[in-house]
Amino acid sequence: MAIFAMLVLRLAVGLPALIDVIGTGLALLLPGPVFGAMIDALQERGRPLLLLGTSVLILVIATLLGALMARWSWRLVAAAPAEGPSRRGTLWGRWLIPGIALWLLTLPLVALAEGGLDTLATWTTLLDWLLISGMVEVLLSLPQLGGSSGGVTGSQGVGVLTRRRFLVASGGVLGAASLGYLGTRALTAGSPPLPRLAGPGSVHGRLPEGVTPTSDFYVVSIDLFGPPRVNASTWGLQLDGLRGSKIGYGELLALPAVEQIQTLECISNPVGGTLISNGVWRGVPLGTLLNRVGVPSGTQNIIFHCADGYSESLPVDEAMASSTLIATHLNGSALPAQHGFPARILVAGHYGMKDPKWLTRISTSKNSFSGYWEQQGWNAAAVPHIFSRFDFPGGSTRLSAGEQYLLTGIAFAGQLGVGAVQVSFDGGARWTEARLQRPLSQFSWTIWSLPWRPRSGLYTLLVRAADGLGRFQARGGGGTYPNGASGYQVIVVSVT
Question: Are 175 and 182 in contact (CB under 8 A)?
């Protein structure tokens, strides 16, 4: 029942849930290689599975609490055994002491998950533990609620059993619903499909060809229950510096803005994966605001704080670059909630972990800083590897012999741009140059294509790309942890 209540409050009003905070804290305690292996193996299923496991852990803790409180609090009155059992302690003590004790034990995980204790989650976890200890006390008090001084008998005993059965049945139903919800999220989670690209004649024809429609743009977040709720009318971005200030949403939109076509790729994107998208962004250069408040001398890093507890940083020179934006729009519209409304950071030459969403504060530091993912061992530089992918054909595709096909895909090499894309039809023995479309910007991916009229047979197709300096991507595959995945995408095609 308590876990169900936590989920409802989290989904309805966005209150941090105990299972969410503990799950995040436990994940941060995992050794980096273990966490990285889990990311590679589970991908989008990892987060719901973590919360499902955390829910089971809390159920175990609550069960042990109930058993211990039952053993300690119930006692027989030796002087008057006919009066039946009685309870030790006071109602308030039996309720508050266990709840507060569990909360104190949880605080280190809260601090780890939230980056400190000065957050709403600190107090919601206290309320959640008090809810659990309160449920335990209600159940243990049932005999008193329906009994008499001589014990529970007759119709009063029936009343006790009826209430107990009702609570047990209700708890079973709500518990099954809660765990079922998390289990369903784990089973249905997965990487996004290959995105549709806007082009002439499509319903997204107003976007340049090669841009990912907003509805297909990949989303990766530490928040299983959806984006934090941010109200633009009350939102303000706190800017620390020599002349610290706070800027509202309307004031931010009124500042001179620039438009930038840029590709974002997640550091956990596997070889040939779909956690990469290309968008038309609009925003205010971060340097404009940093110059307004003044950056203290000796500052090494600009730190970004977000509404969901996420944090990240950039060296000062990168933060001041003209291409680093406080983005407010994607593909001509205000940022959707899942992409960081009302404002996020957009920085070129890095994986998406360096583009934090739901900004609330920008501060400065004269020391090094480890953000959310760096704390788990991911590479702080987060510079993308050269990436290439087949969009057509897909894996295990069957084609017809003698037909003309156009192999297509994308390649991305960060700010260096893509210099070449090659396809092999024989497992890498020989390579054929693909045609490259002109990229939409220096920060955009490149679309490639190659005509192919195959004969019948079984083909092992590989694709590789070279950056603007002529360096080809590494063939040897590696997992995403800790530097991002590398290697050639390999697909098998049957032609009959």
Answer: no
Backbone φ and ψ for 425, nearest 5 degrees, come out as -105, 0
Q: Report the amino acid identity of residue 143.
A: P
Q: Which amino acid is at 254?
A: A
C-alpha angle with apex 35: 31 to 38, nearest 5 degrees? 145
* Whether domain 387-495 has CATH 2.60.40.650: yes
Q: How far apart are CA 225 and CA 140, in angstroms?
A: 33
Burial class (CB in 10 A: 0-12, 13-18, 19+), 298: exposed
Buried-exposed string 359-378: b where 16+ CB fall within 10 A, e elsewhere: bbbbbbbeeebebbbbebbb
In sequence order, the β-bridge partners of residue 465 are 421
**pLDDT tens profile 407-448:** 999 999 999 999 999 999 998 999 999 999 999 999 999 999
Q: Say how far apart CA 354 and CA 347 lie, in whole Å.
A: 7
The overall average pLDDT reported for the chain is 84
Q: What distance in Å separates the CA atoms of residue 408 and residue 431, rounded to the nearest whole number?
A: 15
pLDDT tens column, 226-245 = 688 899 999 999 999 999 89
**Dihedral angle of Cα 120, 126, 131, 133, to the nearest 10 degrees:** 170
Given this model, what pLDDT does residue 188 score?
Answer: 62
Scanning the structure block, which residue is given the tokens 């972990």?
A: 353
Range list for CATH 3.90.420.10 in the chain: 214-376
341 vs 439: CA distance, rounded Å: 27
Q: Is the pLDDT of residue 258 over 70?
A: yes
Concatenated DSSP letters for 104-132?
HHHHHHHHHHHTSSSSHHHHHHHHHHHHH
pLDDT single digits (tens) 130-174: 999 998 888 887 755 444 444 444 455 556 567 667 777 787 788
73 closest CA partner among 156, 123, 137, 7:
137
> How high is the pLDDT of residue 56?
87
For residue 289, count other CB atoms closer than 10 A to its CB.
Answer: 18
* Contact status, residue 418 vs residue 439, Cβ threshold 8 Å: yes
The CATH number given to 214-376 is 3.90.420.10
Token pair 């609620």 is found at: 145
Is residue 425 within 8 Å of residue 432, measured between CB atoms?
Answer: yes
Q: Give the torsion sign (CA, 177, 183, 187, 189).
A: positive
Question: pLDDT of 167-214, one tens digit each?
Answer: 777 877 887 777 777 777 666 655 556 655 554 433 333 345 789 999
Within the chain, all domains assigned CATH 2.60.40.650 are found at 387-495
Closest CA to 218 of 377, 408, 351: 351
For 285-313, write each residue's pLDDT tens digit: 999 999 999 999 999 999 999 988 789 99
